[in-house]
């Protein structure tokens, strides 16, 4: 299956994929509360929401007293994040850019990347570049929480094809091809009125060992893992792989 290299540029538009559907938005307050508990941040701490999308978590972090910077490539999602913040009577600093080229230097107490917003590029070196950018963006000792689909679960439950009903009353047909590196997908969406649209995408598959190696390569130290936002222990059967990592307090450590 041939996936366009820069597939993310046309995939993340509301007319095709909306990460802030009603179900996802309803989960955000509890997920944000879990994240802040694990990051142990004081009010007023600076937090980078990397690939914040329409800001469903970013506004929850801001409502809980964090100074939040949301970073994303999609101008449409960032506009939605700004509107969401206004509606919730809170403020976000929103920056548009590519995660491979993060423009921050030592300014954040913590960073997060939520809902498998990582592993999108054909070359592993681009994932490492992204993680190095996160390490650079953090203050010494700063924490990074990364939430991914668990690669072990994906491999053990692989299905080349599936149908599911979409929130808007339409349907989604997924075709998948699994390689040693990752998951090549094609989505065919059939809207409520029968209209169809199609996109291909790639996600590199990370299990505990692989993400730990990538984080270490980028100068981040993995500390803890959970298998979900309820704080369960991470197992191969867990749906999520939530990892907490730290930038060492000094280069010598
Ligand atoms: C699955 S969505 C998740 C959004 C958000 N974290 C959430 O949980 O609602 C992935 C996000 O990554 C963003 N993204 C994809 N490729 C990107 C890139 N190269 N640089 C920056 N953001 C990117 C998309 O625009 C989208 O908002």
What proportion of the residues is helical, as a percent range? 25-40%
CATH topology of the largest domain: Rossmann fold
Q: How many extended strands? A: 11
Small molecules in complex? S-adenosylmethionine
Tell me what you see in this structure:
The chain has helices at residues 8-11, 22-39, 56-63, 75-87, 124-137, 151-156, 208-217, and strands at residues 46-50, 67-72, 93-96, 108-113, 138-149, 161-165, 171-178, 182-190, 196-204, 221-226, 240-246. The chain has 253 residues and is α/β, with parallel strands linked by helices. The protein has 2 domains: 8-152 and 204-246, Rossmann fold (3-Layer(aba) Sandwich); 154-202. The protein starts with 7 loop residues before the first helix and ends in a 7-residue tail after the last strand. The model has no long low-confidence stretch (mean pLDDT 96). Bound molecules: S-adenosylmethionine.
Features:
seven-stranded mixed beta sheet; binds S-adenosylmethionine; 2 domains; 30% strand; single chain; 7 helices; globular; alpha/beta; 29% helix; Rossmann fold; four-stranded antiparallel beta sheet; 253 residues
Sequence-ordered SSE layout with sheet pairings:
Elements (H helix, E strand, L loop, with lengths): L7 H4 L10 H18 L6 E5 L5 H8 L3 E6 L2 H13 L5 E4 L11 E6 L10 H14 E12 L1 H6 L4 E5 L5 E8 L3 E9 L5 E9 L3 H10 L3 E6 L13 E7 L7
Helix pairs in contact: 2-3
Bound molecules: S-adenosylmethionine.
The site of S-adenosylmethionine has 20 residues, from helix 3.
């Amino acid at each position: 299956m041939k996936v366009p290299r820069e597939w993310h540029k046309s995939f993340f538009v509301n007319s095709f994929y909306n990460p802030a559907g009603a179900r996802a938005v309803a989960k955000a307050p509890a997920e944000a509360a879990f994240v802040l508990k694990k990051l142990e941040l004081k009010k007023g701490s600076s937090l980078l929401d990397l690939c914040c999308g329409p800001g469903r978590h970013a506004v929850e972090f801001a409502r809980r007293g964090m100074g939040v910077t949301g970073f994303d490539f999609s101008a449409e999602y960032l506009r939605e994040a700004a509107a969401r913040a206004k509606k919730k009577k809170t403020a976000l600093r929103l920056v548009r850019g590519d995660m491979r080229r993060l423009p921050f230097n030592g300014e954040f107490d913590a960073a997060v990347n939520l809902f498998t917003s990582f592993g999108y590029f054909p070359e592993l070196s681009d994932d490492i570049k992204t993680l190095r950018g996160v390490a650079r963006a953090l203050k010494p000792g700063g924490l990074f929480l990364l939430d991914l689909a668990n690669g072990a679960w994906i491999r053990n439950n692989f299905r080349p094809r599936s149908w599911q009903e979409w929130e808007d009353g339409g349907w989604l047909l997924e075709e998948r091809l699994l390689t040693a590196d990752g998951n090549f997908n094609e989505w065919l969406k059939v809207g409520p009125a029968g209209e169809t649209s199609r996109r291909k995408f790639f996600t590199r598959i990370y299990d505990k060992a692989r993400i730990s190696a990538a984080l270490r390569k980028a100068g981040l130290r993995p500390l803890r893992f959970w298998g979900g936002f309820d704080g369960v222990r991470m197992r191969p059967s867990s749906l999520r792989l939530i990892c907490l990592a730290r930038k060492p307090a000094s280069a010598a450590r």
